[in-house]
Amino acid sequence: FSQPFRTKYGLDHLGQIEYNLREGRAHDALDEVRTAIKIFNHNLDFKKTYVHGQGPNTRTQDFLRTLVNDKINGAEKYQTERKALLALGLPEDDPVLKDLRDNQLWAKDASKPARLGDSRKEDPWFWHVGRPSGLTEKEKREWDIERTQTDHSKSDMP
């Protein structure tokens, strides 16, 4: 609902709750995108190094296509949340939750030594985004603990 509608019917508080929830979900979606990109990069390097022959390359290419879809799905989730946040009052030029384009779904491979010209090529903005804004010190600590637990549980998955 628009801001005047929420104010007219006394829904401002609910709008703020929805904003906070969607902001968290937007950050979760960005984390999903970052993870999908890392997984894609790792598997692409594996393919280049260890996969030889037409049959294995075809199967690997099919698998890489699913990983590309994971990146796109995460980006679509983020865009959905950002669109809702814009309707709830997020400024279009917000410095943290920016517009995410398909041509930004990449990262430099940190597992390899830097190559000539890499320092001039800057990673997309979402690699430098941290926790949601407006958190109290207690909420920041809780967020950091929860993020650490989430990262550990993801690394324990087979």
Overview in brief:
With 158 residues, the protein is mainly α. It has four helices and no strands.
Largest sheet: none
How many discrete domains? 1
So what's the overall shape? elongated
Distinct helical segment count: 4
Query: What's the β-strand tally?
Result: 0
Strand content: under 5%
Helix-strand makeup class: mainly alpha
Query: Could you spell the SSE succession in H and E letters?
Result: HHHH
Fraction in helix: 55-70%
**How far do the termini sit from each other?**
42 Å
List unreliable stretches of 5+ residues: none
**What Rg do the Cα atoms give?**
19 Å
**Mean pLDDT reading:** 87
Describe the structure.
The relative contact order is 0.12. This protein has four helices and no strands. The protein starts with a helix and ends with a helix. It has one domain. With 158 residues, it is an all-alpha fold. 63% of the residues lie in helices and 0% in strands.
Write the layout of secondary structure elements.
Layout: H1 3-8, H2 12-50, H3 54-87, H4 137-156
Helix pairs in contact: 2-3
Quick tags:
mainly alpha
